[in-house]
Amino acid sequence: MASGGGAEAVRSPLLERKKAAAAEDGWLNKVIDVEEAKDQILFALPMILTNVSFYVIPLVSVMYAGHLGEIQLAGSNLANSWAAVSGFDLMVGLSGALETLCGQGFGAKLYRMLGVYLQASCIITIIFTIIISVLWWYSDIVLTLLHQDPQMAKAAGLYLKYLIPGLLAYGFLQNILRFLQTQCIVLPLGVVESCFHELEARFAFGGYGVVSSLSKISVLEYWAFEILVLLAGLMPNSEITTSVVAMCTRVSNELGAGNPNQAKGAMTVTLKLTVLLALLVVLALSLGDNLWAGSFSDSPVIIDAFDSMTPLLVASISCDFVQGIFSGVARGCGWQHLAVFINLGTFYFIGMPIAGLLGFKFKLHAKGLWIGLILRSSGPDDRSFAAHKVDKMDKNRAVPIPRFISQDC
Asked: What is the DSSP track for 143-163?
């Protein structure tokens, strides 16, 4: 599938490049595979712009809501968290199969099957959108039954009603994103996104719920983080996913082409790049905590609370970024059915009980909730699993392509 000269220049070295006969022996090459790092950066850059552009819209919506009042700030955060738990995260999960199927199918040059996978995923998206929309329409009642503050629940319910039109578009968009990124077609995403935001900005002040509905896409948010928001009422959260996108595509492409050693090299390079990215995020949080808090609210109480949470946020990012990389490896290799049980056990049988115990029993409140996730993120979980499986790639020479990809088409 052609996507222009620029995309071809990125795609060709991803799957079929040949290593130079004599690689340079400079100090930088000893630290990191420069060619592989260059490939991943070229692939990830348009996705960085796309993800940031989409994430900025709900972020700005919450900022505007925060300056309307504390109830509006808490209600918009509660609505975004409930939307993630009950809708957007489900759409991300439903589209996640395309990362494995399309990624390995493209690597194996079974191009005709890619459209079949995309169509099937879109049909599933429509079915789930109808079900979720009904739930969102009555979310104020549901949130009240979950013992949320009635005023917050009412504000969140109104917000969610305006988000309903964006749910179907979000599901389709997730499918298309994975369909394109597994083929290394990422430049058009950045171009289209830039044009859309130029038009969308004219309508941004019509209502903070409508803004999010028009172009709602955010980083891959896990239910455990959003459940903490439901428990705490207000808990800002941000995760690193750009490297995960690049990692998932690189691994699935190389495995589909039968290059397990290339996949191992891709994972190593991504880990090093993500360490650098995590350090930059930690530095920004550490130096500008009052600036970030002031963007969301003028309330001194909220600003002080955010300031006290900053060390925990820094620790959380430091512990959690590696887990995201290995999750990308698992999706690229088609190991979701195994990794999901590991994450389920560590998040909900270890992390969440500890968070609840510290937050409610020991009266640490929001700090206790976050400490629970830090303890979970510092554990072995899917990192040990993925490292063990990747270590066996060269012994198996290739991860078997699923039978529904291997069929003759």
From this structure: HHHTT--HHHHHHHHHHHHHH
Q: Whole-structure pTM over 0.85, yes or no?
A: no
Q: Are 384 and 260 in contact (CB under 8 A)?
A: no
Residues composing the chain: 409
How far apart CA 401 and CA 255 sit, in angstroms, is: 8
What is the tens place of the pLDDT at every residue in 145-183? 888 888 888 988 988 998 888 888 888 888 888 888 777
> Dmax over Cα atoms in the chain, in whole Å?
68
Average pLDDT score, the chain = 67
pLDDT at 391 > cutoff 60: no
CA distances from 408 to 101, 104, 110, 405 (A): 15, 14, 8, 8
Please answer whether residues 236 and 376 qualify as being in contact, where contact means their C-beta atoms are separated by less than 8 angstroms.
no
Q: Rounded to the nearest 10 degrees, what angle do helices 70-83 and 150-181 cross at? A: 40
- The predicted-structure confidence for 234-244, as pLDDT tens digits, reads as follows 333 333 333 33
Residue 372: Cβ-neighbour burial (10 angstroms; 0-12, 13-18, 19+): buried
Residue 222 predicted with pLDDT over 70: no
Tokens of 242: 């750009």
Q: How many CB atoms lie within 10 A of CB 380?
A: 11
CA distance 347 to 64: 32
CA distance 95 to 22: 41
